[in-house]
Predict the structure of Dephospho-CoA kinase.
Amino acid sequence: MTYVVGLTGGIGSGKSTIAKLFAELGVPVIDADIVARQVVEKGSPLLQEIVAHFGTEMLLENGELNRAALREKVFNHETEKQWLNQLLHPAIRTEMLNQLAQQRAPYCIFMVPLLIENKLTALCQRVLVVDVSEQTQLTRASQRDNNQLALIKNIMQSQVSRSERLQHADDVINNDADLSESLPQLKQKVLDLHHHYLQLAEKFND
């Protein structure tokens, strides 16, 4: 059985950077964001339900989901957000469980932004948190997506607090520093954790 390391962090924390470093070491990464895109691919039944509920403005010209429009719609309307979550979460969870069950590596990284919020820590043997300050979150998220600050703050408020996230952590990577300066240290930290997780996985399967 594959040992599962849950990887999480708030918006703008740099989870994808850390996941990529694990992937470069040959570790399988199951990315909840990719799974979430797969279940609403062009022509999928779930995408058709979203369009029927919110209207055709939820589609791009090529027939794919307009994520920016959907995000703006639900983050400012709690009832719409709940409707969307009830539609998507069961399908996403089923697909993630399917991908976890197919793993044959000693351990895998299970990257979920809302790992704690959606109580998915129960699927993990260990939790790795990518930690940054709230100011870093705001700066990075606004630079990356050209998002409005109000929307980013809204997203941050929908996630657990930094302190609560850290309470769930078995391991923490601080990622406040600029990537151009910190990449060598991050690579070393990931390599150290990689060796640690391999040892834990071996004990887990004894």
Remarks:
- The mean pLDDT is 93.
- The longest helix spans residues 179-204.
- The chain has nine helices and five strands.
- The beta strands are 3-8, 29-31, 107-111, 126-131, 171-174.
